[in-house]
Design a protein that fits this description.
Blueprint (H helix, E strand, L loop, with lengths): L13 H8 L33 E7 L1 H17 L3 E8 L1 H9 L5 E4 L5 H9 L4 E15 L7 E3 H9 L16 E5 L4 H11 L15 E3 L2 H10 L3 E6 L8 E2 L1 E3 L11 H5 L6 E9 L4 H10 L21
Parallel strand pairs: 1-2, 1-3, 5-10, 6-7, 6-8
Antiparallel strand pairs: 3-11, 4-8, 4-9, 4-11
Helix pairs in contact: 1-2
């Protein structure tokens, strides 16, 4: 199968996933080892197809999905040695652009394609097809030393726009708030702006404060939250580590305040939850269709091991 290079989150998930997949870990590439602003990881970097019979699938996009996509690729290649799957991150926008440019057949996205992106795909001759592959919650995280443990979505919006600037305004200590965000190519960034900062309203054009620190990766947010008692950040649930404090979130003032967990995502009580997607150029055929069918079947068993939520609530 070739060498495996992996982008690792701070949380140790490899053992569980590899135990399920029955694979060994060949190596681990640190965050930031690729180009700036991209999370790069490749599966099966073999010299080339053996005997001309191997099928190659290129899969790129969402950094939120990259570790899960890697786990899926490893497990699938172990069962199907005739298939070679390469996985790269770089952000949802990067993957969608590559799909539109026809350089990949399968794009990962932690947000829905925009109307402009769909129009661009149609302009080059295809209708993109959306495939929900997992569920995720966006967790709001602070340093464990911060006494604040609950926030409403309007409070989070006011914090990120700069209308609230000190922790004492939301029940904490009299300290300045340090804002952390993913970069603009991230689907998580786009979703957070639309659903949290803009409160889900189409007529709201609010943006993060210019003082917001844009982090190139989930690992960057984790590292800053760990070392900075004034920081607040957000990330996919699968990237939250034990050394961060997860804030309970409510839709409005007065609660109920709900923590992001598999159960609260599935029952709809956690208010910042979303599907994660793969996109194809038209209806998938052949090897791509077979791979997606496996992800939506056997592949769902790997999801919860990485901190995400399977599509079907009865999966363990």
């Amino acid at each position: 199968m070739g060498t495996v290079r992996r982008l690792c989150s701070p949380r140790s998930w490899a053992a569980a996933v590899l135990a399920l997949a029955g694979l060994g870990l060949a190596g681990c590439a640190p965050a930031g080892s690729g180009a700036p602003g991209s999370a790069e990881a490749r599966v099966g970097e073999a010299a080339g197809p053996a005997g001309g019979s191997q099928v190659t699938i290129k899969n790129s996009g969402s950094d939120t999905l990259v570790n899960l996509a890697l786990a899926w690729a490893e497990a699938y290649m172990a069962a199907r040695p005739d298939v070679h799957i390469s996985v790269t991150g770089g952000g949802s926008g990067t993957g969608i652009a590559a799909l539109i440019n026809r350089t990949i057949p399968l794009a990962n996205a932690s947000r829905a394609m925009s109307p402009e992106e769909i129009a661009s795909a149609r302009d080059v001759g295809f209708q993109p097809v959306q495939h929900a592959v997992a569920l995720d919650a966006i967790a709001v995280v602070v340093n464990p030393a911060n006494p604040v443990d609950r926030l409403s979505i309007p409070q989070i919006a006011d914090i990120y726009t700069g209308r609230i600037r000190r922790w004492s305004e939301v029940g904490g200590e009299d300290r300045p708030i340090v804002l952390l965000s993913r970069e603009s190519n991230s689907g998580t960034y786009v979703y957070f702006i639309e659903q949290v900062i803009r409160l889900g309203r189409k007529d709201n054009r609010d943006l993060p404060s210019p003082e917001t620190l844009l982090m190139p990766s989930s690992e960057g947010i984790s590292a800053e939250v760990r070392q900075n008692p004034n920081a607040i950040g957000y990330d996919g649930l699968g990237y939250v580590t034990p050394d961060q404090k997860v804030v309970a979130v409510s839709v409005g003032e007065g609660g109920p305040y709900v923590r992001p967990e598999a159960a609260t995502v599935l029952d709809g009580s956690y208010p910042i939850a979303r599907p994660l997607y793969m996109y194809t150029a038209g209806e998938p055929q052949g090897p791509i269709a077979a791979y997606l069918a496996w992800i939506l079947g056997e592949g769902q068993a790997l999801i919860q091991e990485l901190g995400f939520v399977p599509l079907a609530g009865d999966r363990k």
